[in-house]
Amino acid sequence: MLNTCIFCEIISGRVSSDKVFDDDMLYAFRDVNPQSPVHIVIVPKKHISTLGEVCESDEVVLGHIQVIASKIAKEFLSLKNGFRVVSNCGYDGGQTVYHVHYHLLGGRVFKWPPG
Ligand code: DGP
Question: What is the mean pLDDT of residues 18-43?
Answer without folding.
Answer: 98
